[in-house]
Amino acid sequence: MSTDLQLIDWFRASTTYINAHRGKTFVVLLTGEALQEANLPNIVYDLSLLRSLGVKLVLVHGARPQISAALAQAGIESTYHKDLRITEAASLELVRQTVGGLSVSLEALFTMGLSNSPMHGADVRIVRGNFVTAKPVGVHDGVDYQFTGKVRRIHSDAIKQQLDDNNLVLLSNLGYSVTGEVFNLSAEEVATAAAIALQADKLILMVPTEGVLDKDRNLVASLSESDARQVVAELEGKNDDESYCIRHALQAALHAYTSGVHRAHLISFRENGALLQELFTREGNGSLLSNDNFDSLRPARVGDVPGIISLIRPLEASGVLVERSRERLENEIGNFHVVELEGSIIACAALYPMSDASGELACIAIDPAFQRNHLGSRLLVSLETQAKQQGIKQLFVLTTVAAHWFLEHGFETSSPDQLPQQRQQLYNYQRNSKVFCKKLS
User: Residue 382 in contact with residue 395, Cβ under 8 Å?
Assistant: First the structure.
């Protein structure tokens, strides 16, 4: 029974995301590595569910390891220059056969509809076609790439028409030239070009890890552009499969980001359900490169109170924050600022102006999934900017657990008797909070 109730709670909590994603266009990249995974049918199930919930899907698949295996079996050596495969005329037919076979296999997975499978009744219609016009890479450094190509054009209007007809559009790493030739493309480039041309709401890149991992192998849930570029630089020169996939995915995400695609997700193709967790839960399960501006906060509204409560309740239960009732939050909502990401409140903080040109920072809370992304520091910078605009000359804060963090951010140790008079009267000596202050220039 408890499991059923958990499912009900999760389903209710996902409603916000279901409503937010309905009618949106997602471009999803499944690399050749992803197509080899035993988890692939589960990914297909989850993509089918997205489509059932009203998401417009463009699926791009690669074939890198499969092409390498086919060439090796035929006794043809795979050659590369500057990280890009050289596709010779002698190997082109093998490339075409390999990619075509993978496309057919994917169509078969989406067509499966046994009564005891998650695909029962899904009725997914997949459309393939010459939606990608290509051109040759050409000759670089004296090296002729022959039938390796680049995306010249994505026929976005034709794709949009198919999406509006409730079809799933399947693209591969093959493109077709105006001269009638077939070119072997980078699947990452096709996915990025499609996302840009369609002005997609999301570019989703399936990768072998949970997402981007830090040096301790912890997931980095959110990335800024500078964060992503730093990771790419760190992965340069690493030739293991994991580093290769992450680097290429991040480069694709950055290209999309700088070309107006608002959000790019890196999600594990090995973990069952990772796609749904990333898109339909507050905690997520992947890495997000987003152009959401975390450096500027928006004033909170009464409608944000439930989101604020979900952030601060665990901290109140552990004694880190003073308990605040819903009524108090609603009355004081004008003092709060929040950071919102895809309809969810991921951080909050309050600024209480005092009569002596000072102000108190309070109720700083950040979703655990975003605490490794320096969001606290960005919150503090924004609050200080807000305080200056309000004519506040000095900030103070009371804390029981974050003393060192505030010291690192320019606050100095103070004492309760240095608090503004109106705040001294409310100081709780039983909590014995430490007091810190910071003068604003």
Answer: no
The CATH topology of domain 2-290 is: Carbamate kinase (3.40.1160)
Alpha-carbon distance of 306 to 319, in angstroms, equals: 20
d(CA 303, CA 310): 13
217: tokens are: 């192998």
- 298-439 fold: Aminopeptidase (3.40.630)
Short-list 32, 84, 41, CA closest to 63: 32
Buried b (16+ CB within 10 A) or exposed e, 288-324: bbbebebeebeebeeebbebbbebbeebeeeeebeeb
Q: What amino acid occupies position 175?
A: G
Per-residue confidence in pLDDT tens, the chain, 441 aa: 566 777 777 777 778 788 888 999 999 999 999 999 999 999 999 999 999 999 999 999 999 999 999 999 999 988 999 889 999 999 999 999 999 999 999 999 988 754 455 655 567 889 999 999 999 999 999 999 999 999 999 999 999 999 999 999 999 999 999 999 999 999 999 999 999 999 999 999 999 999 999 888 888 888 888 889 999 999 988 888 899 999 999 999 999 999 989 899 999 999 999 999 899 886 678 999 886 545 456 889 999 999 999 999 999 898 888 899 999 999 999 999 888 876 788 889 999 998 778 999 999 898 887 765 567 777 887 788 888 888 999 999 999 888 888 888 889 999 999 888 888 888 888 888 999 999 986
CB 168 within 8 Å of CB 26: no
For the chain, which residues make up each domain, given as ranges?
2-290, 298-439
Report yes or no: 303 and 284 within 8 Å, Cβ to Cβ. Answer: no
Q: Do domains 2-290 and 298-439 have the same CATH topology?
A: no
Closest CA to 367 of 426, 436, 425, 313: 313
